[in-house]
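Sequence design from tokenized structure. All designs in this work follow the same two-part layout: the structure record, then the generated sequence. An example of the structure record is given first.
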């Protein structure tokens, strides 16, 4: 038989469905009285073809393909409607529109190419129970190996992600420590105010430095301060103290940020260490989410699969950019904030789902905020407050201590024809009288998910 010779016989072993990734192909095959799953695939340690029961497939992979494997839709469409002819040790022979072809492993990829059907292989439709049991054992071994590969590759991927997060956090920690050192220096300079002010008044125009004696420790310590000769000494000393005051005002914030940064670093390192002990994909994903909640600004998770809806889809404007910014609430929930008037329309009218929660500073110009909810779910009070804080902050009421924030389900919004960008009519609104907590706003802004 030549590779392109038409095949004869009744249309049996019909492929009803194909699930394909680069490393594995699964064919749902129907023969009279039986449905079988034929699998061919490869890992670093093995390449094989066999049979795979639906129970083993579900228990081992949790779905049609191992988690994280990218689907190849075009190949799936091409393989549906073919016929399985025979199964070899690491290849599956098929009839594709009357031509004999083979799915075989090359490297760690499954490829489809022309090939004649070897006469030594038993026809798939004629397999006896003993042969089927051997093929099922081989298929189960391959499925477990592929699952192990998916776990290990995901583990390595997450380890790299956390290594990058560690570097980011350590850099931020050093920057904050540098700021605190400057604050300490400013405090020291402020303690020398009396000597500097007095000497500055006596300094001649064009002086390049001030030299005074610091007696604050009880011992004489020479102190030299460089000056710009084009400016008066008194003006420059006054500027030094103003800067010192600004730095001292930021001292508490910097100390809080340092504590938060060290906590985030410890959490990321802890998750990084525990990744090695995770033995299943759900365990790895739980650890990944834990790291993300601990340091949302620094941990950018590589996607293990495709998500949909307002919480997962990075919907884009025609220009290719995202119309919203993403912040992480204290609970870990993602809060979406429109970037501008046209972006508000895109976020609210095209991305948000009918059951998602919409918020906006009442009677103000500002951003639309979306909280993704499941059908029938009520927004937790903590998430509602965090979303309201963002709605108030990204509005022209930003500097006010008390702001009314309106909220309702997305389904109760409508946009009149011809209305300006960002304008919507709200039905069934509720209003939250929000007292703005500036510390809570600051923490939310620091938890932006880039």
């Amino acid at each position: 038989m030549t590779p392109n010779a038409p095949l004869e016989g009744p249309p049996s072993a019909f492929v009803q469905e194909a699930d394909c990734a680069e490393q594995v192909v699964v064919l749902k095959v129907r023969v009279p009285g039986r449905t079988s799953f034929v699998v061919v695939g490869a890992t670093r340690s093995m390449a094989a073809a066999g049979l795979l029961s639906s129970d083993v497939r579900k228990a081992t992979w949790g779905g049609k393909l191992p988690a994280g494997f990218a689907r190849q839709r075009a190949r799936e469409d091409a393989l549906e409607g073919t016929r399985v002819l025979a199964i070899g040790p690491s290849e599956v022979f098929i009839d594709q529109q009357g031509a004999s072809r083979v799915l075989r492993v090359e490297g760690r990829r499954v490829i489809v190419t022309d090939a004649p059907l070897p006469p030594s292989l038993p026809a798939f439709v004629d397999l006896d129970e003993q042969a089927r049991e051997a093929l099922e054992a081989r298929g189960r071994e391959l499925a477990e190996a592929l699952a192990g590969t998916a776990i290990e590759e995901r583990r390595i991927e997450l380890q790299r992600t956390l290594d990058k997060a560690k570097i980011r956090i350590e850099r931020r920690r050093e920057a904050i420590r540098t700021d605190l050192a400057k604050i300490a220096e400013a405090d020291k300079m402020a303690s020398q105010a009396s000597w500097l002010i007095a000497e500055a008044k006596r300094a001649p125009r064009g002086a390049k430095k001030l030299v005074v004696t610091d007696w604050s420790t009880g011992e004489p310590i020479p102190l030299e301060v460089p000056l710009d000769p084009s400016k008066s000494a008194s003006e420059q000393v006054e500027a030094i103290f103003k800067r010192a005051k600004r730095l001292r005002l930021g001292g508490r914030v910097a100390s809080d940020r340092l504590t938060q940064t060290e906590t985030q670093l410890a959490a990321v390192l802890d998750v990084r260490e525990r990744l090695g002990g995770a033995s299943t994909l759900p365990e790895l994903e739980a650890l990944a989410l834990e790291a993300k909640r601990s340091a949302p600004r620094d941990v950018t998770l590589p996607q293990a699969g495709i998500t949909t809806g307002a919480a997962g889809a990075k919907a884009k404007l025609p220009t290719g950019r995202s119309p919203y910014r993403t912040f992480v609430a204290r609970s870990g929930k993602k809060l979406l904030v429109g970037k501008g008037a046209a972006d508000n329309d895109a976020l609210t009218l095209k991305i948000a789902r009918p059951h998602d929660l919409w918020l906006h500073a009442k009677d103000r110009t500002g951003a639309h905020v979306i909280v993704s909810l499941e059908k029938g779910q009520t927004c937790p009070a903590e998430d509602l407050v965090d979303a309201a804080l963002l709605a108030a902050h990204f509005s022209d009421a930003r500097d006010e201590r008390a702001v009314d924030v309106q909220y309702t389900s997305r389904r109760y919004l409508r946009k009149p024809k011809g209305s300006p960008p960002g304008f919507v009519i709200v039905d069934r609104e509720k209003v939250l009288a929000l007292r703005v907590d500036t510390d809570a706003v600051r923490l939310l802004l620091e938890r932006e998910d880039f």
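The two ends are 58 Å apart (CA to CA). We note this feature because it recurs in several other targets discussed in the main text.
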